[in-house]
Amino acid sequence: SGNYYHQGEIRKKELEQSCCVLGIPASDVTVIDHRDLPDDPAVEWDTQLLATLVLKHIEAKNINLVVTFDAGGVSGHANHISLYSAVRYNVCKLLWVPPWAGAGSSWCCWCRVLVLESVNVCRKYISFLDVLISCLLPGDALFILTEEETEQAKRAMQCHRSQLLWFRRLYLLFSRYLVVNSLRLL
């Protein structure tokens, strides 16, 4: 629930505000508040526990596309990396439908997973200049935001007031992730 600085309730409200800016209804937002999954950049979460919770959400919402972090977690945050590990675990163990299962089996429906590419710190903070680099590199999907979409993403980020420390303000000004995102299929 984002309770690292004991601001879980504030951060839940900020998340809802941010999603509203992005056009995501509150009914589509699920906050997991589990004692074994503390918001802590130094804590690796239990892969199987998190994989089970993620899979339940995928099944409950009938999700057919998941977008998540890659093994670098974009910022190296242990919780982000744990989420990638859990989704990868699901893909490898649970989300595929074996050929013999057939339609209507009890196996989870097939789901595609895209992972957001972590880039080095130089590329991370060159904003729109990374578009050319990203276009030249191989990848499965490349999303280039329009100026309006970039402004919308910035407004959504600004809703997270409790997290807007100095380095995140720099992120709002210079991050390539507010302009271009390269993803690969997992």
UniProtKB/TrEMBL annotation:
Gene3D superfamilies found in the cross-reference section: LmbE-like (3.40.50.10320)
One cellular-component annotation, GO: membrane
Single Gene Ontology MF annotation: N-acetylglucosaminylphosphatidylinositol deacetylase activity
EC number(s) from the headed UniProt entry: 3.5.1.89
SUPFAM superfamilies, per database record: LmbE-like
One GO-annotated biological process of the protein: GPI anchor biosynthetic process
Cross-referenced InterPro entries: GlcNAc_PI_deacetylase-related, LmbE-like_dom_sf
One Pfam family hit: PIG-L
Lineage top rank: taxon: Eukaryota
Class of this enzyme: hydrolase
Family from the record: Belongs to the PIGL family.
Protein name: N-acetylglucosaminylphosphatidylinositol deacetylase
Taxonomic lineage of the native organism: Eukaryota, Metazoa, Chordata, Craniata, Vertebrata
